[in-house]
Amino acid sequence: MDLSDIRREYTRGGLRRKDLLVDPIDQFNLWLEQAIQAQLTDPTAMTVATVDEQGQPFQRIVLLKNVDKQGFVFYTNLASRKAQHIEHNHRVSLHFPWHPIERQVHITGVAEKLTVFENMKYFTSRPKESQLAALASRQSSRISARGVLEGKYLELKQKFAKGEIPVPSFWGGFRIRPHSLEFWQGGEHRLHDRFLYSQAEGEWQIERLAP
């Protein structure tokens, strides 16, 4: 197989400056709604990129759990590798790959921890199985076998069979306050459309980028 021969044409139409909303969060919400309506698999899945203390980049996929004018929210184990990276370097990037509709969104920004109240409000809204999994897993730590994790999960399931599950102290969320958002729309003959929103003096500026 020659990987260089794998290609396809992008035919779903272009993106023009006049089509863009003034506020990038409004534009993102519009595209997210369209991705959901298109019945994409995991439309809220996003890549979160961080950098460790040696400058080594890492990426992983998490689910977007809220977005508003303040930023993009996801939850994780606060002792996880990504959380440790964020503790060292608050600058992160997000990427939404909506390939079936030939769109991508790339976001850069700064991560901040959510409040205890925000963490509690979301944690208690989760299915009990998800709450137990968060409590059972010390994310990113080394384990000898899957059975260790499953055993801990079953132990906790029995322990909290008739009671509420406490919010783990090592679990919480981050909000990414955006500094820039880039919207990418595939175009014919590789003439893709790219528009970058960036802040200048408290206002969002929009620039077209060459593909």
From TrEMBL:
Chain residues that bind substrate: R7, R8, E9, Y10, K65, Y122, R126, S130, R190, L191, H192
Cofactor(s) needed: FMN
EC number(s) recorded for this UniProt protein: 1.4.3.5
Pfam families: PNP_phzG_C, PNPOx_N
Single Gene Ontology MF annotation: pyridoxamine phosphate oxidase activity
Residues binding FMN, per UniProt: 60-65, 75-76, 81-82, 104, 139-140, 184, 194
Annotated transmembrane regions: none
Keyword Metal-binding: no
GO BP terms, alphabetized: pyridoxine biosynthetic process
Keyword Transmembrane in annotation: no
Cofactor detail note: Binds 1 FMN per subunit.
All copies of domain Pyridoxine 5'-phosphate oxidase dimerisation C-terminal, residue ranges: 171-211
Domain Pyridoxamine 5'-phosphate oxidase N-terminal: 32-158
NCBIfam families found in the cross-reference section: pdxH (TIGR00558), PRK05679.1 (NF004231)
Subunit structure: Homodimer.
PANTHER family: PYRIDOXINE-5'-PHOSPHATE OXIDASE (PTHR10851:SF0), PYRIDOXINE-5-PHOSPHATE OXIDASE (PTHR10851)
Family classification: Belongs to the pyridoxamine 5'-phosphate oxidase family.
Protein name (database record): Pyridoxine/pyridoxamine 5'-phosphate oxidase
UniProt organism field: Vibrio cincinnatiensis DSM 19608
